[in-house]
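Entry for the shared binder. Reason: the reviewer on the internal report wants the predicted structure included alongside the sequence.
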Amino acid sequence: MAALSIKLDFTKFSQDLQHRVAKLHDKEYLLRPVATELIHMMTERIHQKGLASDGGQIGTYSSGYMRTREKYNRGKDTKVIIALTSQLENDWAVIATDKGYGIGFLNPHNFDKSQWVEATYQKKIFQLTEAESQYAKERFDELIKDALNS
């Protein structure tokens, strides 16, 4: 009969486990990268494709406003992309909060603009879409697995 012997260095095992669990509590490791990736997705959706959080088009610019857009060399497309001077889209940022990280505006005036735009078009625009939320969940899962397997 063969004998099996296992030696376990419990101190090393415990330290390794603590290191892995600590990663899961690290806002920098888990939350910041997801927010950073989402901000790029949201910028493309809102300021390039002109899509609201429900996946539909934000709206259409009036002919009067199109004259203003043409003065800023913003083209002739009437699709609302909420970008005239680029202040709003350039002010997007990953912002540290008490609980981790979020996506918002550095200038409070731009936050006010975002609320005005949502009220004007009567649509949620600056919230995550279902696809963006799903991406965040999948990315969290990936980061958690990586932390536990490192």
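Summary line for the report: The CA atoms of residues 19 and 146 lie 12 Å apart.
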